[in-house]
Design goal:
single chain, alpha+beta, three-stranded antiparallel β-sheet
Amino acid sequence: MYKQQLETIWIVVKVAAGIPVTAEAFRNRDSAEMRVQSLRTQMHPENDRGAVFESRIHQECA
């Protein structure tokens, strides 16, 4: 019998000129925040955005 357990992941979304262009998943918030900071160095501040979102996923365990 399998058990389901919730796992928190962090999603980084890059939006360029109002269009979501990438989404990346991370297991911890610090890594996600570091990725957003890295993306911001390549963005146009008036048009582009980067954000971190928390999500919970179900993981099946034996």
